[in-house]
Amino acid sequence: MNDTTVDVVGIGNAIVDVLAHCKEEDLTRLKLVKNSMTLIDAETADSLYEQMGPGMEMSGGSAGNTMAGIAALGGKGAYIGKVRDDQLGQVFRHDIRAIGVQFNSAPATAGSPTARCLIFVTPDGHRTMNTFLGACTELGPEDIDEDLIKSAKVTYMEGYLWDRPEAKEAFVKAAKVAHEAGRQVSISLSDSFCVDRHRDSFRDLVHHHIDVLFANEEEIKSLYEVGTFEEALAEVRKHCKVAALTRGEKGAVIVAENELHEISAEPVAKVVDTTGAGDLFASGFLYGYTQGHELPVCGQLGAICASEVISHMGARPDADLKELTAKVI
């Protein structure tokens, strides 16, 4: 991984997150499915926003959160995503640049407004996400900065974006450019609902274009349509150079062709909000991976970052990740 200027470039849905606490009965009243991610239209987004309690707004999106974590660890990150030239687009651009992530994607001057995700957090720390994708849906192969992809050790792609044909073309283009330059490609499956919708095309992408795969237990079982984690484990190691599979409080399992490492979950005094747990696990892992650390160390870094982000509201780190991970590296 020599002759690079960026550790990781992320490609994903450029979304502004709106987070607010709620009660369990609020989810019932609003007819929301707890702990799920639902795509909504602009009218529903406006209606839910009006019914949310006091909250916070910040740039988000799964890959954006991962890039924020990498920057917090001291890594060099860049981001490709689609925003509109509106107020939320300016919020996203300012926030991600302010944390040290390179973001040069030109804002759209027409079309849908910048995306937003309305996140309802229940007292047990679980989050229910309602996402209006807006301008995100318009990302296509023309938005892929080939020079940027070539300059990155790893190109990291967000499964949530894998929907429209143009986005699929963008991912495949980015993967081919990266591999032709001798770089590596990674993806997070993002959500079991994404896998259920796009299983066949996800498998094709994973089997032919992905070096490092991130998934949780339910996502990887869904990808291979098996009933147990062990069966999924046997399948995924046939197709990826590395797979980092998270299992919540059970920790994570990292597999490569001839390696298997079980990573314990880091202790958390209180789980406040699980938003971004998988995203920050990917931050820690990819930071370690691009710095040349062994897989068990990469897994430990991921676990530490994930434990930090679930200890408070929001999907971006509050504490000093460099200090927290010093015990490992």
From TrEMBL:
- Alphabetic keyword roster: Kinase, Transferase
Q: Name one Pfam family in it.
A: PfkB
**Presence of keyword Kinase:** yes
Of which family is this protein a member?
A: Belongs to the carbohydrate kinase PfkB family.
* Residue stretches in coiled coil: none
Instruction: Show the GO MF annotations.
Output: kinase activity
Key word Kinase present: yes
InterPro entries referenced in this protein's UniProt entry, alphabetically: Carb_kinase_PfkB-like, Carboh/pur_kinase_PfkB_CS, PfkB_dom, Ribokinase-like
Quote the protein name from its UniProt record. Answer: Adenosine kinase
Q: Where is the Carbohydrate kinase PfkB domain?
A: 59-318
